[in-house]
Amino acid sequence: MKNKELIKELAGRMKWTSGEVSEILSGLSSAIGSHLVERDTILLEEFGQFESRKKGERISVNPTNGKRYLVPPKLVPVFKPDAAVKAKLKEIEK
User: In terms of residue numbers, what domain contains 26?
Assistant: First the structure.
């Protein structure tokens, strides 16, 4: 599902305009992003948890020329789905 499709579906479910839903989603993503940068954990009940983890530096090899290079450490976003979401996904698989 793309962003426009999500906005259209939410607007229909909530009886809001597409502009209002777009603003809400933009604000939500901005808030989540800024808190992840600060290394905070964001818990959305019955959905899941967003957090950022530090990935350590490592040595990588370029497969075309065989040269080794150092990849610096970085923060990566991680999402852990809630148990209810996991259960629903398992039901779909069956």
Answer: 1-38
